[in-house]
Design goal:
By secondary structure, the chain is mainly alpha-helical. The protein has 10 helices and no strands. Helix 1 runs parallel beside helix 5 and helix 9 runs antiparallel to helix 10.
Length: 269
């Protein structure tokens, strides 16, 4: 019950972030398009490698807390424009993930899962849309709470269920690792490039296109929402273990790639 409350607070925060961050069309257009590519490519790659496990949707979400955490390690080399792009992309990613959850897995959601995920996110969105309510203050309160307490507790509790050594080489794990690492970078970079090429969107001030590639790498880090989707979509404990293994491996590799890419890029600008 306590874990359900924590995840409800997390998704309430997602609802707040989605509504407030995605309220400026010019600011959100390019990262939203990139986020879409960063969901389509991983899903397709996963399905090409593994069409049987049903875990394709776990390849799509981005873990904002993890991605921003690694980005913060850049210190003085951290470009504020990259952080804003990453934040907006991850929030758009969360929105699309909730839509996927509602469309493809609504029949598998029990009352508790519905209330703690879609219901809590919807409540957060409603809260943020009421001008009289102190949305910014609530976000400032919940952001560190979710980043440093709720997300770590939830992720650790789920990963503590563990996975077998054999899971590391399973088809599902391989599909998820390739889909998240390769698919996120290709999807985000290609969709952003196409949007800029046809002048459907503009590159934000202070942001270099090569930095979008680094954002694509950081977007390969996905745990919280992906684990929720896995719990809803996959009944097999064995496959869930393989998903956990794939998420851990891809998060570690994506974080390292994104960190070193963004660390080197500013020197070349």
């Amino acid at each position: 019950m306590a874990m359900d409350l924590l995840i409800a607070i997390f998704f309430f925060f997602i609802g707040l972030e989605i509504t407030t961050t995605l309220s400026h069309p010019k600011q959100i257009l390019l990262p939203s398009i990139a986020a879409l590519g960063g969901m389509i490519f991983p899903a397709v790659i996963f399905l090409v490698i593994d069409s049987e496990s049903g875990g394709w949707a776990t390849a799509m979400p981005t873990d904002l807390a993890l991605a921003l955490g690694v980005f913060a390690l850049l210190g003085s080399k951290a470009n504020p424009a990259v952080r804003l792009f990453l934040l907006t992309l991850a929030v758009a990613d969360d929105l699309f993930s909730l839509i996927i959850l509602a469309i493809f897995y609504s029949k598998d959601l029990d009352l508790i899962h519905s209330a703690t995920t879609l219901g809590a996110a919807a409540l957060g969105a409603i809260f943020a849309s009421i001008p009289a309510l102190p949305t910014k203050k609530v976000i400032r309160l919940l952001a560190p709470l979710c980043t440093y307490l709720i997300v770590p507790i939830y992720v650790i509790s789920k990963l503590s269920q563990g996975f077998a050594i054999s899971d590391l080489t399973s088809k599902t794990t391989t599909a998820l690792v390739i889909a998240r690492i390769v698919g996120k970078i290709l999807g985000i970079s290609l969709f952003a490039w196409l949007a800029l090429r046809v002048r459907f969107a503009i590159l934000p001030d202070g942001l270099h296109f090569s930095e979008i590639v680094g954002v694509g790498a950081l977007a390969g880090m996905g745990l919280t929402v992906s684990i929720v989707i896995a719990e809803v979509a996959i009944a097999s404990e064995r496959v869930q273990g393989e998903i956990r293994a794939g998420l851990v491996i891809s998060a570690l590799i994506s974080g390292v790639i994104g960190y070193f890419w963004l660390k080197k890029v500013p020197a070349a600008r």
